[in-house]
Amino acid sequence: MNTTKATRRTTLALGLALALGLGVTAQASAGAPRSVSGKPSDNITRIADFYGAYIDAVTDEGSGDLRDALRAHYLTPAFQKELNAWEEKEHADGVLRAQNVPLAWKVTDNGSTAARTEAVVTLTWSAGQTSTLVVDMTRGSHKILHIGAKGLGSK
Prior knowledge:
The protein is an alpha+beta fold. It is built from 5 helices and 4 strands; from the N terminus they run H-H-H-H-H-E-E-E-E. It has a 4-stranded antiparallel β-sheet with strand order 1-2-3-4.
């Protein structure tokens, strides 16, 4: 008998919620599903993947090993050395060119040559402030060989 009362109460509560439109409101406020796509052969996808994973790694506590592994995988050995020297001098993270971690990032294609792809990475910080970096990636090995205020073609 108690299970019948519980079932009736649950049914009544569900019916009341639907009659009041609570289920519809919750569903409508969720919005349309989002999707992200890419392909490993596309350098813009790779740069976006790197920045997404890197920002996650430096945001999450105790992820120093992951940060270093991402650098080893995505950066050329020569650029890793250059980045380490820059960081020693500037006392900041060379990939982000900052001491803090951004809240969001966006990667935009900025052109290609036969040898490399250039992308503009826009980092969004607190209070909606943004900064931009230019990232150059080799087309053959898919490795980042430069991060800076200007691309290699602008030097």
